[in-house]
Design brief:
The complex is a heterodimer of chains A (about 300) and B (about 425). With about 300 residues, chain A is mostly helical. Chain A has 14 helices and 1 strand, in the order αβααααααααααααα. In chain A, helix 4 crosses helix 5 and helix 5 runs antiparallel to helix 8. In chain A, about 35% of the residues are buried. By secondary structure, chain B is of the alpha/beta class. Chain B has 10 helices and 19 strands. The radius of gyration of chain B is 28 Å and the shape is globular. The chains are: A mainly alpha (about 300), B alpha/beta (about 425). Strand 1 of chain A pairs antiparallel with strand 4 of chain B, so a sheet runs across the interface.
Chain lengths: ~300, ~425
């Protein structure tokens, strides 16, 4: 980098832009107009507006901010950690190891021939993404209060970025899964084509939950405290550490009401080429759609008060 | 001329009191219901919570290329207005129309992350302010040059000095290219050099035809930069028009009763059996009453009113002025050799009764800032009878008469207007050339 500091005041950033605009007298601003005003206002600020196509256009216009916020979250998290990205895979790996020892070798959970570490890891992967995404994004609006009170942007970007950052972690942890599949000589079957769809579904469910929880958390901070507790409980009613087949038949239909059952079981099926539980998957899709619509509506209703309440 | 900003009947209400302000927990509400069920339920049902109108029926229009200043004291609604325009919060009633892209700068360095490097923060901050990545790429070198941080571009900003941090943050913000720029008190930070740079930049931005709305407590910059100003007070717009006039009305409303101290009961007043204080006042003649806020470009009068209780005493009144740091700015007394004017009483014995002495501090003499007055009455030659420290304070406001060229901080305890004279001594520069 050149260290020429002297005289840099002469090179003001606007020297370039100024040349595109004619100079103007202070007393006659109308002469300096370099653009013509539109007939209709670009932006109308009024109370109680509802969703409109304009909001979606706005969201699209700010897509680069989404990228930068994700990038910031990922970058800051590993900036000072010596092991860096390794931490992303360490957590699911340790969990897999522990459960392999306790449930796989000691309790001997029936896995119908699939290596238990692989079975568990295939469940832990989507689960870790979902739980981490929901917890971090639940606190995301509160954590970015300094932005919300100082600058405008579509507020949905904030929980979206929190989920997005976890998606990056997910991608890294996924590499381990590929390694394990090679190690255990598990062939890839046709069911793998379902995998992208399942990842999208998992992400959408996480987004839906995030919109709702982060918005409520702005006013009721109980959410931030309650989330880890709920998540801790939720893991046991989801097919993370065991296959769904282990659940007694009479409880199966109740069990499937958990939207994560279809997603996690589907994830496992597509990777290990097992048959899909379409019933559970259908419930997951319906549930995700409902949560997304409701939470986006709630978010929109309360977002205008964020800056006043946060 | 068609306006670029149209603000119609805009009001903003905030709820104050337990229910709406700040986060709360279910537990608090639950314990409230348990401990005092009726009160709590009534509170839930009673919708007439305490409210405050931060803004009330604001109307104005701004023409393209105009710089509009918004002034008022703290809590007048200035920041709320900027927040509404910036879409950070929504109005309770009314309508705002913007006929151009609006960029807002309510704080310098919003979203800067201490762990990230200068380079990374330029991109992050730019994105937060609504810039496209390509725009930032294009302006990157200029931003860095303006901030003067070339050497530290890849250092995390947590290691920056506060000056470097501010410069970088302002440089990013200054590269925003919206048609409307909203700025809140950014000029209040940074050193004199930085403020000068910022103000220069604002002038340039408006020359490019962009519209600026600025909130500032810096009256000279309002007067010199803006074409128009609006005065807010208690959420209402109470004056609008030529900046110098609006600043004048601002100074006349901030004028408070605290420009005066009176002891109605002589027995309680500072003093002794010889003299007792009655009142001390700070006055500017045009205002017709005491004021705690004075205009730098006008004479300031310190008025001492005191009782003489001992017939035939030779008295002298005196004052000290101290600045905010407690440094003595001046001391003056009504002794014959000290006073600039003839005053019969500075050599004659006082009969009993109430006296008033006035000390005139010239216009364009004190600097901007807060001053405190010490009131003194003594018996000649130098026998102090009353010495009341910090009887009252007043603030000197710069109204821009000496601010046509320079807008930054003005160092000095005083700022007298002094005579300057320059002469051209010789035309050749031979002496310097031969020295090389």
């Amino acid at each position: 980098m050149g260290a020429t500091i002297s005289n840099s005041t002469d090179a003001l950033p606007s020297d370039v832009t100024a040349s595109t605009a004619p100079p103007a007298l202070k007393s006659s601003p109308q002469h300096s107009l370099t653009f013509s005003l539109p007939d209709k206002p670009l932006i109308v600020i009024e109370p109680n507006r509802t969703w409109s196509s304009h909001d979606l256009i706005d969201l699209w216009a700010y897509r680069e901010l989404l990228y930068f916020l994700i990038w910031r979250d990922v970058k800051v998290r590993y900036k000072q950690a010596v092991l860096g990205v390794f931490w992303v895979v360490l957590q699911p790996l340790m969990t897999t190891l522990i459960f392999t020892i306790f449930l796989g070798y000691l309790a001997r959970i029936p896995t119908s021939g699939i290596p238990y570490p692989l079975l568990v890891y295939a469940g832990i992967l989507p689960w870790t993404f979902f739980s981490a995404a929901v917890i971090t994004s639940g606190n995301s609006l509160v954590g970015n209060a300094h932005l919300i009170t100082k600058v405008y942007f579509p507020r949905l970007i904030v929980p979206m970025a929190a989920v997005g950052a976890r998606l990056v972690d997910f991608a890294i942890a996924f590499l381990i899964l590929i390694g394990m599949m090679i190690y255990y000589h598990v062939p890839v079957g046709w069911n793998i084509v379902m995998l992208p769809g399942l990842i999208v579904l998992n992400t959408l469910l996480a987004l839906g939950a995030s919109f709702l929880l982060s918005a409520i958390n702005v006013k009721y901070r109980d959410i931030g405290a309650a989330l880890p507790v709920v998540i801790q409980f939720w893991v046991y009613v989801s097919p993370v550490l065991y296959p769904t087949s282990l659940v007694p038949p009479k409880w199966q239909s109740l069990y499937m009401l958990n939207p994560l059952v279809g997603i996690i079981e589907g994830f496992r099926s597509s990777i290990l080429n097992l048959s899909f539980n379409w019933m559970a998957l259908g419930i997951s899709i319906a549930f995700t759609a409902a949560v997304l619509i409701c939470s986006a509506y709630v978010f929109r209703r309360v977002e205008k008060s964020f800056a006043d309440v946060i | 001329m068609k306006p670029i900003i149209k603000v119609e009947n805009v009001s903003k209400r905030y709820f104050i009191g337990a229910r709406e302000v700040g986060p709360q927990t279910w537990r608090k509400r639950l314990t409230g219901v348990v401990s005092s069920p009726f009160k709590s339920i009534r509170a839930q049902l009673n919708s007439s919570r305490e409210t405050i109108w931060a803004l009330k029926e604001i109307n104005f229009e701004v023409e393209p290329g105009e710089i509009l200043g918004i002034i008022g004291h703290n809590g007048a609604g200035k920041s709320t207005l900027l927040k509404l325009l910036s879409r950070i919060t929504e109005p309770t009633t009314g309508r705002i129309e913007l006929y151009g892209r609006l960029g807002s700068l309510l704080e310098v360095g919003t979203g800067f992350h201490p762990e990230l490097t200068g380079r990374e923060n330029v991109y992050l901050n730019g994105a937060i302010l609504g810039m496209k990545r390509s725009e930032i790429d294009r302006q990157f070198d200029e931003i860095v040059a303006f901030a003067e941080i070339e050497k530290f571009l890849d250092t995390p900003v947590k290691h920056y000095s506060s000056g470097m941090y501010m410069r970088l943050a302002f440089a990013v913000a200054a590269s925003l290219e919206p048609e409307i720029l909203v700025v809140d008190e950014v000029l209040a930070v940074g050193d004199a050099e930085f403020q000068k740079k910022c103000l220069g930049k604002m002038g340039e931005i408006s020359k490019q035809g962009r519209t600026i709305l600025m909130v500032s407590h810096n009256m000279p910059s309002i007067i010199n930069l803006c074409q128009r100003a609006i005065l807010l007070s208690g959420g209402k717009s109470i004056a609008a028009g030529h900046p110098a006039e609006v600043v004048q009305s601002y100074l006349s409303i901030v004028r408070s009763a605290s420009g005066e101290v009176i002891w109605p009961d002589p027995a309680q007043a500072p003093g002794n059996e010889t003299v007792r204080l009655h009142a001390v006042r700070v006055i500017q003649e045009e205002l017709g009453g005491p004021t705690a806020d004075v205009d730098i470009s006008k004479e300031t009068l310190i008025q001492l009113i005191y009782w003489n209780l001992q017939d035939g005493a030779l008295l002298y009144p005196a004052i000290w002025l101290r600045d905010q740091m407690g440094t003595y700015v001046l001391s003056s007394s009504n002794h014959k050799s000290v006073s600039l004017t003839e005053d019969a009483w500075n050599k004659s014995p006082y009969p009993t009764g109430l006296f008033q002495s006035v000390c005139r501090i010239p216009a364009n003499f004190l600097n901007e800032g807060q001053y405190s007055v010490t009131a003194i009455v003594g018996k000649a030659p130098f026998d102090t009878q009353i010495l009341e420290d910090y009887v009252l304070t007043f603030r000197v406001h710069d109204t821009g008469e000496m601010r046509k060229e320079y807008f930054g901080a003005w160092v000095g305890t005083v700022r007298p207007r002094l005579a300057w004279h320059t002469e051209h001594l010789r035309p050749d520069v031979g002496a310097i050339e031969s020295a090389d």
